[in-house]
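Here comes a specimen:
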Amino acid sequence: MVAPLLAAKAYAAAQDIAGAGLAGAAGPARGPDFSQLVNQAISQAVSDSRTAEAQMTAQAQGKAGLVDVVTAIASAQTSLDTMISVRDSMIASYQQIMNMAI
C-alpha cells in the first residue's frame, strides 16, 4: 500500500517534470535523473526504518508513547512497500524490454 502523501508527492514531481518539458520545449528539461529519484526513495526508506527503530528503543525505555511507535513503524512499512513495488515494476519493465523482438 502506498502512503497517500508519498503518492501525492510523486504525482506532483511527475507533473512538474512533465510541465517543465512542455514549457521549455526549446531546451532539455532540468528534472532529477531517474537514478536520483531512486536514491532519494531508498534514502527515505532507510531513514524511516531508523526512525522506527529509535522510536521502539525509546518506547522500551519509557521515553516515547505507543502512538509514536506505531506511526513510525507504519511509515517505515509504507516506505518499504513502496520500494518493493518500484523494484517489481522495474523488473517487469526490464523483462518486457528483453522479450521485445528486434
